User: What shape does this take?
Amino acid sequence: TLSSSSAASDVYKRQYLFFSQGHRFIYELKYKPDSTAENAEKVEMVLDIGKKEVKFSDLQFLKVDSLSKKTGESWQINSQTQQLLKRNLGEDKSLNYKDVMFDYYVIESDDKMNWQIAPETKMLGEHQVQKATTEFGGRKWTAWFSTDFPINEGPYKFRGLPGMIFEVSDSKKHYVYTLVKNYKLNEENDTKKFLETHYGKKPIKIDYKKLNELKLNHFNDPYSWARQSRKWSVNMNGVIYDKPEQLEELKKIEQKRLRNRANDIELNHAVSYPDK
Assistant: This one.
């Protein structure tokens, strides 16, 4: 195998010529937030590459934002994947945005990956791609990249190879990204409403340790807000809960949901929820 560092450095000069305007890459993400689930969930993710910045998020954010601009109505959603981030083009440092309950947070991280490039190649559609492997976030990953797109980027935080990442997956296939579409943008998309802020909420700067403390606090008392409210109601699968004596049942339901969706993409930052 070869180190990717020397090959990757050559492509930096070519990528700015290639991306003289904005470019969008749509990835299908198959993932298992519950590691024991038989079937994976699917969601479309979008990687926008501009002249200076790279942004990654659930595609649904862009669709809802576009709809809001057309209709003038205010639409808000939360991230299914909690994979909202942006970084400077050509850099490994990321700003990771997290919406947790009623607040919005941002975490800075340095995510440099040490890739090992293998000689193995295959065809994905019309493009020949080459294999590379790395370890990141407590998982082993295999990526397939193509120099047909001379840029060092890819989905989520995966970058630094001498070509665009077309496919990347962990060894257990809990997270599988596949490039399904790409096209040029006439102008860079404005994401201030849902990325840099969360529908008016400015992000609070924290670290992963503090984020996990907040998640554990939520786990221990997920309906604390209801205890402080005179009138409240929760619609859980068509069943309405609105009585104080129902809070303990709601708590157990939410704790079970959180335990079953604790298979974070970065296991080294995952929360370890108590069994009882």
